[in-house]
Amino acid sequence: MKQLDRTELSLLVALPALILAAMVLPSWIVNYVQVSLGMGLVALGVMIQMRAGLVSFGQGLYFCIGGYAAGLAGKYLGISDLFALLLIGILAALIIATTLGFLLRRYREIFYAMLSLAVSMILYGLLSSTEELGSTDGFNLPVPTYLGMAPSGEAARMTLFIITAAVVVASAIALNRLLRSSLGYVNEAIRENELRVEYLGASAHNAVHVTYVIAAVVSSMGGVLWALSLGHVDPEMTNWTTSGSFVFVCILAGTGSIVAPLIGTFLLEILRVYAVEISPNTWQMILGTVMLLTIIFLPKGLWSLLAKSSTAKRFDPEADANTQPGE
Amino acid sequence: MDVILETRDLKRTFGAVVAAHNINIRIHAGEVMGVIGSNGAGKTTFVNMVTGYLPPSSGEILYRGKSMIGLPTRVITRKGIARSFQIPQLFQELTVIDNMLIALTIADNPAPPVFKPAIDRRLEGRAIEALERFGIAQHAHREVGTLAQGIRKLIDIAMATVSDPALLFLDEPTSGVSADEKMEFMGTLIEALKSSDTAVLFIEHDMEIVEAFSPRVVAFYEGTILADGPTAEVLTNDKVREFVIGTEFHRTADTEGVA
């Protein structure tokens, strides 16, 4: 596939724009963007599963696996290279997701949601009770290096931001292509009518398994980048509240476009900041109210305000794959 | 004609209930046959067993001489046995062409490629062509859920045929279609399928449809085959008239004198 669709072009334009913005914006905003980008990858993992009708309430599992894999590689192997840490995080997620996928591929709806949650909470329990890994406090990660280079000060901050943004944009483009691929279409078909998918000759189990593994890999990359941004990991990464926030993002932003969860993650971070500012003890109520209003008035998320309703466009190979069925 | 499907003493039970038993049938390449029987006679159970949805309790299913027992639905579909459903099984929120494109994509790719684009102009052309065969291309860009039952039935069948199956089961294709449109509907359907060498087995309750479109009929009663043979012969069989179609239906026998 050589041609870029509108979404991919937008993402490519967004990359230099993000980098330029990072140079001029206050550092606290840049930090939020950077953290949001890492978490946005996890939300993308949730989103591609949602396109198959599967809601993962335990995506924090792979967010945490990525972060801890990088942290452990730094702590015990002395590895600080960002690319090597990314690779280690991906491999860890790949192995675990491929194994767990054989179980999860058989379940749908609430059972899939609860099973994914259960697995993530097992890891939470294990990490919380492992003193060698700092139990609930977690532990710190090394300052990342880049193929032997070790920038310092502002250069280090910008380098990490640029690489994080580049990895997120590249991943988002890859996932956008996944939505346009045969697997992407089969996933939509699974959400609509799994019986028919089987009677057309495709394995819904295999499609769900592959999607689950891809979502895990993307989420683990988010975990590595997020952990390196903060320089710290702890079991909260796989707690149900963290996993819930990724689902929240997908509901808030919608699953109509690959860009939506990325923007949604940033909006959630900003919303959380202001909610805490406004009401320090009951900020969750503000988030809950926003969630409620979104579900009532924008059931397909904020993105549906922007989405075009032309279904025919969907099948123009030169158009993008962002309009979901029914939009 | 070559035998493409043969069942031997096929049986399916649900606890103490015997839904189908002693099903012995041979289906030949390219033939059109009707299956009749009252509700609960075992017709759909038979189709479900042959297409892998229900595993038989005992017996054998041979497709081109090879056993199909234990194979999952998708594998059986890929080997060349397809089906449509009494209640059309479609992707309701998608457009008609969407449904066809998904069917074609799956037919072309046993394991869906992860990053290869699913849709191209050539595939769209094939989808439209398939819809034209069934006379429903004008609905291509409409959402399936908004269409009439008869059109949804045709889409359901069109989707089942994209893999060019050797054997196609149609489960009550005219149910839900108004009485005065049934003949035309079935005519469109059989005409569309005529261009291929697909053997068609259709379950039907309307005896006029059966008489008009199938040279051979199998009658089911209480989970087993009561009669199997040329249509005129089966429809005038005393037991079939008594237990399956009722004594009112005797037009063929009376007018043509077939015993």
> At the third CATH level, what is the topology name of the largest domain in chain B?
Rossmann fold
The tally of strands of chain B reads: 10
CATH superfamily of the largest domain in chain B: P-loop containing nucleotide triphosphate hydrolases
SS-based class of chain B = alpha/beta
Number of helices of chain B: 10
Q: Which protein chains are joined by the largest interface, and how many residues does each one contribute?
A: A-B, 35 and 43 residues
- Principal-axes geometry of chain A comes out as globular
C-alpha-based Rg of chain B, rounded: 19 Å
Strand order of the largest sheet of chain A: 1-2
- How large is the share of residues in beta strands of chain B? 15-25%
Percent of sequence in beta strands of chain A: under 5%
Number of helices of chain A: 12
Residue-averaged pLDDT of chain B = 85
Helix content of chain B: 25-40%
Main sheet record of chain B: 6 strands, mixed
Please compute the radius of gyration of chain A using only Cα atoms.
19 Å
CATH top level of the largest domain in chain B is Alpha Beta
Low-confidence runs of chain A: 309-327
Task: Give me the secondary-structure topology.
The complex is a heterodimer of chains A (327) and B (259).
Chain A: H1 6-24, H2 27-50, H3 60-77, H4 82-104, H5 109-128, E1 139-140, H6 153-180, H7 182-192, H8 194-200, H9 204-230, E2 232-233, H10 240-253, H11 259-278, H12 283-297
Chain B: E1 3-14, E2 17-28, E3 32-36, H1 43-50, E4 58-63, E5 66-67, H2 73-79, E6 81-83, H3 96-108, H4 121-133, H5 149-161, E7 167-171, H6 182-194, E8 199-203, H7 207-213, E9 216-221, E10 224-230, H8 231-235, H9 238-245, H10 251-256
Parallel strand pairs in B: 3-8, 3-9, 6-7, 7-8
Antiparallel strand pairs in B: 1-2, 1-4, 4-5, 9-10
Helix pairs in contact in B: 3-4, 3-5
